[in-house]
Write a structure and sequence with these properties.
ABC_AA/LPS_Transport; 10 helices; ABC_transporter-like_CS; ABC transporter ATP-binding protein; 10 strands; Rossmann fold; binds adenosine-5'-triphosphate; nucleotide-binding
Length: 256
């Protein structure tokens, strides 16, 4: 298992956002995390990306405890994420935005900049190359020198995705990547997400667009009121009575 979520719980004041959620993600697969509004998807996502720590439970990546690591140590791990809302530098070119992702993993620090210029030049070229490959994968290579802020919204989301890919992640966390996209763009995104998996990247997908999740995920976990109510293949999830009830808003009589 590349990622193991083991009995994580989290409350915010009086709200139990997560209550003992457990699931495992196998390497090289696409794992969908779904659930109605307020189910705890973002909270789970933020615990994997390191923005939040669980009150209890463990998050392990490649066997290492993520929930114990400082933000600095996490930065060295091969986990990249995209955001629900586009976070680009609109005045910079497309490729500069993507290179900003790769820069995070560049090894020349301040001293390197002063003492080893040639090496830094080499790194710069390598980063540019990584960024170009990422842009090619998402289909934006031709727009590399355009200003990011000038592109259409759907393309800006792809720049974000390319920036995450330029980090060469083993695990890619996608937070509602289809938000704001039209049907054709969402379909194209599905093809792209599968293509990214083919390069060996493991993907965790939090998404409301059901057709996308059902179409690309190898496995899906469903959260409702902070608990996992189902896990399985897209077909199993589609037929699951608890899942159907949760989405239809049928009152939960579990605690009878
Ligand atoms: N920082 C916070 N402070 C207080 N309550 C929070 C905080 N973050 C989340 N919550 C609450 O925790 C619960 C789970 O929220 P979360 O955002 O994880 O759900 P979600 O499944 O991502 O929902 P959505 O689909 O609407 O984004 C909700 O009741 C939410 O109001």
């Amino acid at each position: 298992m590349i990622l193991s979520i083991d009995a994580i719980s989290k409350s915010f004041g009086g709200v139990q956002a997560l209550d003992g959620v457990t699931f495992d993600v196998s390497e090289g697969t696409i794992f969908g995390l779904i659930g109605p509004n307020g189910a705890g998807k973002t909270t789970t996502f933020n615990m994997i990306s390191g923005m939040l720590r669980p009150d209890s439970g463990e998050v392990r990546f490649g066997g290492k405890r993520l929930d114990k690591l400082s933000p600095d140590r996490r930065a060295g791990l091969s986990i990249a994420r995209t955001f629900q809302h586009v976070q680009l530098m609109p005045g910079e070119t497309v490729i500069e935005n993507v290179m900003a992702g790769a820069h995070l993993r560049g090894r020349s620090g301040m001293m390197g900049a002063v003492l080893r210029l040639p090496r830094q030049r080499r790194e710069e070229l390598a980063i540019r190359q990584l960024a170009t490959e990422a842009l090619t994968l998402v289909g934006l290579a031709k727009l590399a020198s355009r200003e990011a802020g000038e592109l259409a919204y759907g393309q800006q989301r792809l720049i974000e995705l390319a920036r995450a890919l330029a980090m060469q992640p083993k695990l890619l966390l996608l937070d509602e990547p289809a938000a704001g996209l039209n049907d054709a763009e969402t379909e194209a995104l599905g093809v792209l997400i599968r293509r990214i998996r083919e390069t060996g990247v493991t993907i965790l997908l939090v998404e409301h667009a059901m057709t996308l999740v059902m179409g690309v995920s190898d496995r899906i976990a469903v959260l409702d009121f902070g608990r996992k109510i189902a896990e399985g293949s897209p077909d199993e999830i589609r037929r699951d009575q608890d899942v159907i009830a949760a989405y239809l808003g049928v009152p939960d009589d579990d605690d009878a």
